[in-house]
User: Fold this.
Amino acid sequence: MPKRKVEVETARLEARIPVHVYEQMQRAADLCGLTLTDYLIATAGEDARRIVEDADIVRLAPEDQVRFAEMLSNSHRPNERLSREAKRHVELIERRSVGLFDFRGVKNSMRSLPSIKPLRIPQVHYRGRLCMYPCAGSDIAPVIRAFGHEFDTFLFVDLSYAFRKSFKLQLEGWAPVAETRHLKGPAVSPVQFIAAGKFGHRDVEPAWLRQEYRHVATSRTIEIVLRRGFGEYALHELADGSLDMFIHRGDSLGEGGSGVTFLGNQSRRHTPLSCMLSVLKRKLAFPALIASDGSNTPIKELRNAAMGDDSIMQFSGQGLAWERVGSLEDGHRKGTVVWRVSESGKARA
Assistant:
């Protein structure tokens, strides 16, 4: 049955901006395969949503999260006032269960909520040695230029990708192989905000655009996969032990960034979005490579190295042994350092 088209109320926005800013935005939209209007909705609209969310949601530091969890786990029996308020709460909402939870039958316990069934994420398989770059945007050519001869498949993930027929990657020294372009999913899907109680969430129709490219000078062939969607889900889709290199740079936790901590274990309300570094460690084929400019990570060595501290050559952290092996420079504000990582205790001799 075809999906019912939802009419979205629109409003007009007018703004006068410097010519060079307009030209830059138009070029960015062209690189993403979007109209300028779609590009502004995907970027400015997403920034506005994130700013509002940051103002409405209280996030705890790791030590405060632990303290809060311990208080819940070691809580005493409800006192008389809490029991009275819990009973009043049940009486108020018993006739209208809301959302995922049904509070009928709750007496003196505040921990009798049912468990939520975990989301099942199907695996997606890629051939050969795999390099993944979430939140990549148009930052594709520098990666292929640096690592095109090292890996067989490159997986770039971003929410803004649009795969119109006119969409083409411009890669110096590489030419697309005829009859190898395959699109799975809708060509275009804007990011939408789905209201769900107090919080809500973003949603976008996922899609995969696969295309083989051949190096003009050496005839080496690689596959480039552009996946529209969330980087967290794309990482979960990989088979354990199948990822040879992970790149994360040019991102932020605030305006204009993804807000995702891939190289850290931040807790989220939605389990698949939590503890992404632990997920990444399961997916890596050790020894593996991680390239980082210090974006969105609590690991201070990664941040300091990206800011120019050349004394950091090796360190241990997050259950991994990190060894500095190179850099990826391409006009970014901070340097992108490449690390060889091994499981702690199994470091490369």
